[in-house]
Amino acid sequence: MFDDEDARKKPKSVKDLEPLSLDELTQYIEDLEEEIVRTKAEIERKKAHMEAASSVFK
Q1: pLDDT at 1 over 50
Q2: 12: helix, coil or strand?
Q3: Dist. CA 55–CA 47, nearest whole Å
Q4: What three-state secondary structure class fits 40?
Q5: How many domains does the chain fold into?
Q6: Is the pLDDT of residue 46 over 60?
Q7: Is pLDDT of 10 > 80?
Q8: Residue 11 has what pLDDT?
Q9: Is 5 a residue whose pLDDT tops 80?
């Protein structure tokens, strides 16, 4: 739990895109898109968990 809080407090570093080739930039975008899909899936999983817990306490 503390690791999550620490991660949120740290400023995100910005990747220097200048030295990357077109192929590397394309791959970087694909990697980011995969991470977005993974993150959205985790959000949905947590929402479902919260809804299930909330229905128990109604």
Answers
A1: no
A2: coil
A3: 12
A4: helix
A5: 1
A6: yes
A7: no
A8: 74
A9: no
Contacts of 17 (CB under 8 A, 6+ apart): 25, 28
Cβ-based neighbours of 25, under 8 Å, separated by 6 or more: 17
Residue keyed to tokens 């991470």: 35
CA geometry: angle at 12 spanning 8 and 23, to 5°? 135
Tokens of 41: 């899936």
Kindly state whether residue 24 falls inside one of the protein's structural domains: yes
Residue pair 25/17 in contact (Cβ under 8 Å)? The answer is yes
Residue 39 identity (one-letter amino acid): T
Which one-letter amino acid corresponds to residue 30? E
Domain extent, residue 54, equals: 19-58
| Torsions phi, psi for 48 (to 5 deg) | -65, -40
**Token couple for 17:** 């895109």
